[in-house]
Specification:
mainly alpha, two-stranded antiparallel ribbon, 4 helices, 4 strands
């Protein structure tokens, strides 16, 4: 059983998947920081100094009661809240990750398409005189001996 597990883990696909998960987790951390620390502050400033992480609705106040200045204050008081500001940050993060993945996949597909086009270049052509297939570099047909360099 240990040998089977080792064979499974050492497969290329499993190792590739593990590397992808680790890179994805690191990428997620970077995107979270990008959204929270770079993108949302200017958007909040444009909207009149709004901090999206502190946008919430109190469903049931805790002790001490509402109003709460920040989400942390509400959570510390034990209030039940709907944290729609955190959701907006998460949504922006998701859109950025989705767009980055779109660009990555588009780039990979573009590279694959170029490789396919390079592979599909013809290696033969038809002689205009005898209509038989000849090498694309030929300057004289080996079948009818016609001059093709004209």
């Amino acid at each position: 059983m240990l040998k089977e597990f080792k064979d499974f883990v050492m497969r290329g696909n499993v190792i590739d998947m593990a590397v992808g998960i680790i890179i994805g987790a690191a990428f997620g951390t970077i995107i979270k920081s990008l959204v929270a620390d770079v993108i949302m502050p200017p958007i909040g400033l444009l909207l009149g100094g709004v901090d999206f992480t502190n946008l919430f609705t109190v469903l049931q106040p805790g002790t001490p009661g509402a109003p709460y200045a920040t989400l942390v204050d509400a959570q510390t008081a034990g209030a039940v809240t709907i944290n729609y500001g955190v959701f907006i940050n998460s949504l922006v993060s998701f859109l950025i990750v989705g767009f980055a993945m779109f660009l990555l996949i588009k780039g990979i597909n573009s590279l694959n398409k170029k490789e396919e086009l390079a592979e599909e270049e013809p290696t033969t052509k038809e002689c205009p005189f005898c209509k038989l297939e000849i090498a694309i570099e030929a300057t004289r047909c080996p079948h009818c001996t016609s001059d093709l360099s004209k």
